[in-house]
Amino acid sequence: MIQNIVEFLNKILADELIVMILAAAPISELRGAIPLAIGKFHFGVIKSFLLAFTGNLIPVIPLLLFLEKVSNFCMRFPIGNKFFSWWFARTRKHSELVERYEALGLILFVAIPLPITGAWTGSVAAYLLGIKFKYALPAITTGVFIAGIIVTLVTKGVLGSLTFFIK
User: What range does the domain containing 93 cover?
Assistant: First the structure.
């Protein structure tokens, strides 16, 4: 599915913008954008990281500022209620770290580049757990930065090479 989206966007947008859009999307985020930038578009490591990092942060401020208003409005309708109830329950289920350590936990939660973590879910966790904007934004930004480094190192094979020495 992501491949089809990339092929469609590639016909109408610059490669750099595709990387940023993919990084801003809730499913792919950095995990999809950095490998695409390095592997398919052959961007350098720094360019790939910066485009994906910037793109991944695009939805964070609107999510932190407007998620409550948007979700309250949408939950008045059956489909909106079903979606937000599912999304919030899923986030609560995986946000023990954030609940226990608040902003520090939010950094770690976002920094782990797994399917249930990232800037989108971190923003939802911050909202659900009442973490103030002034703490949530820097925590999520730091987590995205760390996740970007991890994904870049994995994409370049650096972390895979390090496991050779651990065995």
Answer: 60-152
Helix axes 133-155, 119-128, angle to 10 degrees: 160
Block residue for tokens 């902003």: 103
Q: What is the pTM of this model?
A: 0.87
Based on the fold, state whether residues 73 and 28 are members of the same structural domain. no
**Tokens standing for 151?**
């994904």
Span 23-64, pLDDT tens digits: 999 989 999 999 999 999 999 999 999 999 999 999 999 999
The residue whose two tokens read 């092929």 is 7
Return the structure tokens found at 52: 């994906």
Q: Which residue has the tokens 């720094």?
A: 46
pLDDT at 159: 58
Q: Are residues 66 and 51 in the same domain?
A: no
Task: For residue 119, give the H/E element and its range.
Answer: helix 119-128
